[in-house]
Amino acid sequence: MNHTQRIAHVARQRRYLTKAIVREAVERYFEALADDIASGEWVDLPGIGKMQVTQEEADVLLTSFGKDGQRIKRHVTHRLRTRIRLYERLRQRFKHPTDGKIKN
After folding, report:
1. How far is 36 from 30, CA to CA, in rounded Å?
2. Domain ranges of the chain
3. Measured at the alpha carbon of residue 87, what is the angle toward residues 82 and 90, in degrees to the nearest 5?
4. Where are the strands (E) in 4-70, listed by range?
5. What is the pTM of this model?
6. Block means of pLDDT (10 residues each) for the chain, length 104 residues?
C-alpha cells in the first residue's frame, strides 16, 4: 500500500474524516517524527517498536564503486547509526505470518 492508498484507507474507516484531513494529519505526524529522529533520542513507533538514529565520528577508509564499476576509496569522518528495537508482537508476525493481522 502506498502513501495515497493508506490515507484513503484510513479516511474510509471513519466517515467524518476526509482524505485531506487524514493527509494533513499524517504528514504533520511524520514531520514531527522526523524532528524527533533527528534529535538522536529513542522514538516510539506505535505498533512497530523504537528507533534511534545517531551521528558518530569515524575515521575509516571505505571502498565504493563508481558508475563505471571502478573502485573508489574515500575517507569517512562521520557516520549515521540506526538502531531499531521491534516490539515482540511484530517480531512474532515475522516468525508466524498470518492474514496480515496481529492476533490479540
Report:
1. 10
2. 1-39
3. 105
4. 43-45, 49-65
5. 0.64
6. 82 86 91 93 92 92 91 92 94 75 54
